[in-house]
Amino acid sequence: MGLDNKSDGQNNTDDETLSRFVKKLSGYYCQFLETDFKKGREPKRKFANKNSANRKIGIRASKYPQFQTLLHKTFSDNKTVAIKVKPRQYKSTLSIVVKESINASIDTLDLSPLEEDFLNIYEKISKKLSIEEVNVEEVLDELVTLIRYTIDQRIVSPVIDIIAPIFEKQTNASIAFDQLESYTDEITTILMISAETKLPTAVAEFHASKEGQSLNNVFDELKDVDSYKNSLKEYFEEFVSADIFSEFRELIVTEKLSENLQFYFNIGEVKRGKSIFPLYSIPADIKIDEGEITIDFDTHLYANKKAIDFIIGNISKEQNIKTTNPITDRIFYKAEVDSFFKLTKNTFQKILVALQVDGDVLLTENNKMIGKGATGISVTNELSISLADKSDESIVNDYEAMMTGLEGGTSLLAVFSNIIDNFLTTNPVSIEREIEDDWIEKEVTDRLVFMSPLPLAEEQRKILSAIKNKDSKFISVEGPPGTGKSHTIAAIAFEMILNKKNILILSDKKEALNVVEDKIEQVLAKVRAKDTDFVNPILRLGKSGSNYSNIIKKTSIEKLKIAQRSFQSEKENFNNEYETVQDQLKTDIQNSADIGSGIEIDKIGEFYNLETEFLDNYPGIEDLLGGEINYLEVLKLMQELVTEHRQKFADLFANDSDTKLAAYNKISSVTEACFDTDFQTYLQHYPNMDLDKVEYLPQIVAEIYKAKGVFGYTFAKSSLTDCSKKIKEILGVLITKPQDNIDEFNFLTSFKSDLESMLSQYGLQKSDIPLLKEFLISDLRLSSSQRTVVAAYLALDKEPLNNSNIPNSIQDLLLTDGPLIDLLNQFSELNELETSLKDSINEIPDFDYLRNKTHFETLNSQLLANTIDERVINFATDRRTEAKELEKIIKSKGKFPTDRFEALKEAFPCIIAGLRDFAEYIPLEADMFDLVIIDEASQVSIAQALPAILRAKKMIVMGDRKQYSNVKTSNASKELNQGYFEDVRKEFEVSIAKGDLGLMTRFGTFNITNSVMDFFEMVSNFQIQLRKHFRGYPEMISFSSKHFYGDFLQVLKIRGKPIEEVIEFIEAEDLDRLETTKNASEQEAEIIIAELNKLLVQENPPSVAIITPFSAQQKFLSMKISEHENLPEYEKKLKLAIFTFDTCQGEERDIIMYSLVASRQADGLNYIFPLNINGVPEDEIDGKIRFQRLNVGLSRGKEKLVFILSKPLAEFKGSIGQALRHYKKILDDAKDAPTEDSVDENSPMEKRLLDWIQNTSIYTKYRDSIEIVPQFELGKYLKSIDPGYQHPYYKVDFLIRLKVELEVYQFIIEYDGFAYHFIDGEDINNLNWKSYLTPKDVERECVLESYGYKMIRVNRFNMGSDPIASLDSRLGDLIDEYVDLKKKGGTISRLQVKTTENIAGLQSKTHKECKTCNEIKPLENFYDPNLISGYGVNCISCKGSNNSRQRKRRSVFRQGTQSHNQSRSSSRAELNKMFVNETHKRCSRCSEVRVLEYFYDEGLVSKYGVVCTICKGPNYKSHKARQDKTKKQCLMCHRSRPMREFYDSNLPSNYSAACHSCKDPNKLTVKKRKSPSHSPSSRIDGTRKCTKCKKIQPISAFFDSGLITQYGVMCESCKGPGYSEKRERNNAYWGRRKGR
Fold it and tell me: Which residues are 59's β-sheet partners?
């Protein structure tokens, strides 16, 4: 049935019916959230001193009158301040006499009737359990009720009656005694807690097997009278002698040992029967630190509306009247002008009226007041403190809003219509195939290079794709232990932020939210400025001390602005670097895939087949192929050389080949030097030359000359013939005309001596001349490489060749066919193929994927930071008023107005909140968020999740149904739930289903017993399970993987250390010890403390957690360790935490210690864990929780599991025994980390590879910190993490773990054992192995590298001739890559440095922000000498050359003298630059940096000049010495004159810059121009003193018509020649000065 396409009338009808159903459903969920569907149907918020586990959960303020007075004062004041409590500051007033009296009274109790009572109960119950069809749960409920009633009537009520008179006799005892009767339920629970824990299993066992041993044991325990009396004494001892500090500390311990508990301070109580309900509650945060407890109160006041509803309902039923609840709101928000008592004022009196209370009760009164109401109800003004389940008030308010706001077709009704349509009436659109196809079609580069600040596995990438899909609305993610759920959530948050979307992250577990927040903080911290505290703009709502105020604080926003401006200055560089890194990554990956896939495996197979055939044809020849010398390769090369020079080799080396070839090789250098010289020319021309006779050639030449006559040689034939004969004897050639070769004969005369000289230069002897002659005549020319071949051939040990019957002489090589030629041809073919394969394999790029990918992730982190920073900056800047308003709302924990919340979402794209907190703030509006995630969703009921679903456009639930389910629903009564749910079912059947059985079946998903994970199973568009386990080693998670996940987990950590360092069993010494505390073991506690102390002394102590099945042991360990002197170190160094199996979900530590407590005397483990790990029935009472308990507890470890046992392992029974034996078997079967002796003796390659590794310099350097694990089967490991893996398993692999300081580097050396595959006939074909390296292989190796394992592929084709050097080089490169991994890219590093400098600079005022370009620069960039402050608001770059003001100021000095210009133009910034640091300075003359002493000048104010003393020279006078106060230098003539020559009374300073002689007379006075007679140099008697001759003369002697004043300062006789020209120049100068 659908809800669309209906007429208006039908729509109205549908709206009405849907509205009725929604109201019913909301009421059902409200009822559950308020009561938990516990037996008795009473509201869950009640006061009690202890819970069912005997843990402290409540304190009466009346026990401590002084503290109660303090609370009254605090609640009366409108300004709520924190309360401090110290030890022994507030103590109970009851005396020790009370304790003794109570103990004596308890001893008098007669408990003998108990045995008969319990016997009757046992008989009654056993009969019912014998019936096969009986409802076991109902029988169990009846049994618990009977036992509780018996204990109450036979023990608790009598003891209250006995001790009541004792309290009445004590001063102020009535304050405590009034509550004694109300403690009966609590006391009863404490007395039967042990039996109640064991009853479910005992009852189930009795019904299933009809064997009552377990049930008999429970009833025997119930009959133990002494245990009851001891428990009563302990209870009342604590009751009467208390310090509130100790009670608070117990509350804190209980809060730490449990989940989702909240402290409440209660105001007023209403009592009905034995139940006490607080009227109002204030949430509070209580912490203990350094021996002081601090109490911080929330700004909310919760009214216990459900309790008032419950009591008014009972009154109405008993009196048959109708009374309404006067409380309409559950939450009151405290304003600054309100006190908590003031908030109760309007409703409390109405409550008294509604409950028909007589008498006056004032909550503000410090003394106790009691008012009696209808039907035995009483109301008091009692104050109390309680530790209770976190309130669901905000969620309940949402449901009430739904119930009251659905009329009239509201948007909420439309949302519900859509939910009903999606969840019940239609099938969800599945996008799983589409996502899978899209992933398969992705190129390997797109799989491995993606826009995310975090490394992501395949499943996580698919989740991101599903979010982007237009057809996805609901996504379900199963995340087994250690598979990175929090990592995934952080990645999703980043994806949403980078795509301008918003996300709300919810969880009911504070720890889960903390982990997600930490993940986000860690990513942003990678790019934040160093040594600077940034408040990252990720909003956390509901957390104590919300971070909103810190985020929008001016200093926080200013830091974000600085980071933004720093980025803008590097934006271009950043974009270039981003594109370069991304492109390079893709290019390297693609090249690896292309080249690797191009190497066909058929060629490798062909090579090994040829090699096998070759070795078979020539037995024993394999020995000639290995080692340093490859015999056949040398022979083949020699054969090629002989073939090339066949004739010459035949002529030269046909006989005695090796000796002669060695001789040739010996003189090859001199032979090469003689090629193409006269030596070779004449030897080839006269091959038979007798070198011993060439010395006679000069005599023959003389005879030739002698034979020459007048007519030449015309008549000398006879003489010439004789000469020719003699020459033939020497040169071996008949020369008929010797007279034509006289020059040649002259040259040849010294031929032999020249040859001898040549040989001598090369260290050879005269005896080598014949060989040299022969080789030069033959002209056998060999290249250097060919000579190397000859040398290699000569160096061969021929004996192995001869033993193998392989011909090897030159004569054999000269043959064109025969056995040797066939052998070498086959070898050549094999060698060519091998060379081709080597070249192809070595072409595969060797790139650092991990480093480049990490670099790319860091760049994406910077993009993320920019995005979120920009949004919050805009919000805090542009909407400042709204930001302040929202700050007040958040501070008061009020709900945001819808329009204001839109602004908040824009500013904070990622909001994190508790599941029970978010509704307090976020309006109930449809589609408020683009995406909502609920983490640990298996623990969240659909009743708690539905309001979040309403607010989401898309929804992801993430959890693990194999771990704990929702505790609230687990503890709910099935009977009560069924009753409430039946009402909703009927309404749904009538309003919606209308007889449709399919819809009725789907309707079951709305039951509160379903978690939201169960709910989504039927409606999700995409479901996926995270499979990669990152937390522990395979051996550690193996039990959970096998028994809970069907070996589905892909464990990524590789164990490279002994198994004893991963799994350990510690057995207690005294196996027969009887412990005094039930379900606690002091012996195991002592072992644990001893182990903790051992861990403390380690250089890098691991984190540790202790997990135990029993809360008693948890409490015992907590107290024992808290009293230990090493407690601070346990907490700081080991991060120690103590959990039960029920409270450890979501936690992880390096080492987990299991304190199992069970001993031969007492073993309660079968009440905690399943009886059998295989096939636990779902309907077994508590069976599902017990199954989950085992899975959760055994999957917390990262590095080691330690099991501490108080009895032999073989004596453990049930599933816990199976688990222990599982780990013991792993421990026994596994091998230690192998040594050199542990390699496979039958594998020569493994020994060879190990030898190579151990001979590298890397191994030598890190010998003490390197671990080598041989026989590591990489193929199986790859198969475990990728079921689609098709390669055959590799034969030989090594895992290497190298520890360098605090880092651990891990390498996998993989040997491609191709020969084994092809020779041994393993099934290799084109279906499973087509290429040497496929794109999938490249992807797998990159993924493996991203998990921290760098791989080195080793095979015969890529190791070269020196495998040790090759391996050494590759290991060294990988270590360098690991070291470089932490180095950030240039842009990010510069950004961090720049941001740090800018923030520090602005704070210290050494930097300033330019108003034009908005860049922050050092102060010298703003220097302006023309400003009073010396610094402008714009930087020098922005002022530019067109700044008229600056140009005008500079022009004043442009026309002055050079010295004046220099002194005026040197800026303060330039002087500042001269200071290198506080102790050194740079000289302005020589530019050398020297210590400050070189610049000291006592005459300067600063004491340090700009020129060093070396440059000043020995004649330099200090500034002080040069200062003469009686003289002054004239600005115009630069002469030093007495001060009187500068006197001018009209100036403020009384002295001018120019002397009287140079000064313009027009400027002598400012007020009035004086006549010459009135000038300072004129005398009263009309005379003037000449400034040159110093004579006093009449004024007429100074007349000068060229002066404006007509009178000069020198007399006529002193002016001399050229005076007129000088005067004109002065006049021109001063004219220009005046003109300006």
Answer: 385
Taking each continuous run of H as one helix and of E as one strand, the counts in the chain are 68, 35
Angle 769-778/751-761 helices, nearest 10 degrees? Answer: 100
Neighbours of 682 (CB within 10 A): 18
| Total residues found in the chain within this entry | 1636
Phi-psi region of 210 (alpha: psi -120 to 50; beta: other; left: phi over 0): left
Rounded CA-CA distance 723/737 in Å is: 9
The residues pairing with 475 across neighbouring beta strands, listed in sequence order, are: 956, 1022
| Sequential DSSP letters for 416-475 | HHHHHIIIIIS-----HHHHHHHHHHS-HHHHHS-S-SS---HHHHHHHHHHH-TT--EE
Helix (H) or strand (E) holding 371: strand 370-372
Spatial separation of the C-alpha atoms in residues 1475 and 1482, rounded to whole Å:
6
Other CB atoms within 10 Å distance of the CB of residue 641: 20
CA angle 340, 346, 349 (to 5 degrees): 105
- Per residue in 668-723, pLDDT (tens digit) is 888 888 888 888 888 888 888 888 888 888 888 888 888 888 778 878 888 888 88
| Residue 1635: pLDDT over 50 | no
Residue indicated by tokens 């006061």: 47
Q: How far is residue 1310's CA from residue 1308's CA, in Å, rounded to a whole number?
A: 6
Task: Give the tens place of pLDDT for each residue, 1557-1597.
Answer: 777 554 443 333 333 334 444 444 567 888 888 888 887 78
Backbone angles phi, psi at 1354, to 5 degrees: -120, 125
Buried b / exposed e over 403-434, threshold 16 CB at 10 Å, is beebeebeebbebbbbebebbbbeebeebeeb
Q: Which amino acid is at 1480?
A: H
Contact 1266, 1259 (CB under 8 A): yes
Asked if residue 280 has pLDDT above 90, the reply is: yes
CA 1635 to chain centre: 73
**DSSP 3-state assignment of 1205?**
strand
Can you state the angle between helices 136-151 and 184-209, rounded to 10 degrees?
Answer: 140
Q: Give φ, ψ of 939 to 5 degrees.
A: -100, 5
**Do 1321 and 1315 contact (CB within 8 A), yes or no?**
no
**Distance (Å, rounded) from C-alpha 80 to C-alpha 468?**
47
Give the pLDDT confidence of 381-437 residue by residue, as tens digits: 999 999 888 777 778 878 877 776 655 455 666 666 776 666 666 778 899 999 999
Q: Which residues pair with 1593 in a beta bridge?
A: 1584
Confidence band (pLDDT; 50, 70, 90) for 71? Answer: very high
pLDDT digits (tens, 9 = 90+) for 300-348: 888 988 888 888 888 888 888 777 788 877 788 887 788 999 889 888 9
Cβ partners under 8 Å of residue 232, min gap 6: 106, 155, 159, 187, 191
> Alpha helix (H) ranges present in 629-696?
631-644, 646-653, 657-666, 668-674, 678-685
Q: Rounded to an integer, what distance in angstroms lies between the CA atom of residue 494 and that of residue 860?
A: 10
The phi-psi region of residue 464 (left if phi > 0; otherwise alpha if psi is between -120 and 50; otherwise beta) is alpha
Q: Looking at 558-612, which runs of residues are DSSP E strands?
A: none
Give the pairing of strands 1292-1300 and 1303-1311. Answer: antiparallel
Tell me the HSE value of 1402 on the side-chain side, using a 13 A CA sphere.
18
Q: What type of residue sits at position 1323? A: D
Cα separation, 1484 vs 1471, in Å, equals 9
Q: Residue 1067: phi, psi to the nearest 5?
A: -100, 135
The encoded tokens of residue 582 equal 């991304």
Q: Which residues contact 851 (CB under 8 A, 6 or more apart)?
A: 1377, 1380, 1381
CA–CA distance, 1615 with 1589 (Å, rounded to integer): 10
